Predict the structure.
Amino acid sequence: MTPARDDSRDRPSEHWRGVFAISVAADMVRMEVQNLRVYERRGLLTPDRTDGGTRLYSQADIEVLHRIRELLAEGLNIAGIAKVLELEERVRRLEARLRASRS
């Protein structure tokens, strides 16, 4: 469910490249490492992997994790969060298509 990695968002490619180890990512968003693993298993985000299988989180992944924290604080469960993230991504894609069609 990680946001689509396309250039339509005017973000540098570094924004999408996994650079943070799971422990660093967990510290950045003040979550337990286990939670990040659960969110990945549930499809809320998809961190990059090294050839050896180590998870590497991008700045975009960190933003998704912050959004997950917000939604948890609002009382949503994992299924609800998945739906919200899916709908937010759909809106972003549609807005990008609209901007492109106006150009």
